[in-house]
């Protein structure tokens, strides 16, 4: 059996250009590579557990167009196909069967004819909910993504609301990548039809697809220097360090847990397949902090020398602490409370100098720990104290790679040097794949042997938190002017008489199919408001308690609210 480190910083994940050619037809190119370790982890989720961890992205745009309905439909479909060619993992399949290997499916369903009365945001939310609780939306051997185009909603000014729901396997995308793809999709929609056609033809060229193929993150890791003996010594010492580290304390139990199973709701049976359901049902909710509360979080974070990302983690932790305190009949003495612990994925791109967001590139944290503070302490004092702690822990995952950092990693004194970080991420990935894989498919990979690592924050966290930071660099309302004159179909730009579409961003809502007992909070901001979206195991968490948590989150830093104890 090969050494477990054989896939680390390896060329085994390089893309292969497979050309089929005969004398009667032009050559056909297909590109293949092995899945990386992190990608395999999410492959197991999706393939073995009916779409578990698949990402949903509900994109809302305001559009203005003089196109006929059929032309508009065709324009959206071409924009989607162009997007897939420009970002080739949207064309990917896993273990394709021969008859599907060379076929490019359109992977788009336009729902305009199915739901004539479907036109509101609440209808979109219901469809979103059900898309996470059916059989997997796509089959991985045919495609790893599908786009639903929801019915249009007409506004009084003649503009329309266009909503699209993209469901994608987590093995090819993460939060940053989804925002990148949404940004490019909006840009393509705004192209004139003739320009879009030209862009599509260019994107179809095998040479352009080849240049856009993203690597597996394992191929980019900092290599372990030295001969084979020194490399084996590195892995030995790393595994021992993982074994002897202090284990995490027992966290606050998530106060939103429940006992009753959810009710069955089988809607949209002509869109989704209900013959099979995933092992867990997924609930989803979203909330925004008001501009005043966002400003307060920003000011308090800045005053404490912390980032807004640390502020997001702190808000979530404080809300959980408040509800935890409320759930206790007899609070333990001060200082004996368990801490709040958040597990969280993070982007390791900076550790190997990779800037592109066009695939799934994730690492998994050791957990963020915030000590419990009772609600009797004024909220600003609690926030200011905890945000410093959060910022200090999160800063370890934001360091940038350099040649010096790689060499420093050999000393083992710096736990966040690029080399040690990448190597530890690789081991965590191997362990996650083995832990998730059903017994009959396990490969027996166990790098630690009898010396168990103590990294598993996900085994005992209060909740999970995923932050993508400011999204205005990807999508922002007001980027496109909706000034098309619908009276004569012309415009002051140089499109001439060509029918065009103008599309401006309004909102995007993302979530995942939840794992067993998962409560994952997604954090982002647009510069004016902080946004939180939650994907959770509906069988494990009480919807009424989740709504109460939402109310606490919205009011915790709201000036003058019931939680605003400033004295």
Automatic annotation (TrEMBL):
Entry's InterPro entries?
A: CAT-like_dom_sf
Task: Tell me the protein's name.
Answer: CoA-dependent acyltransferase
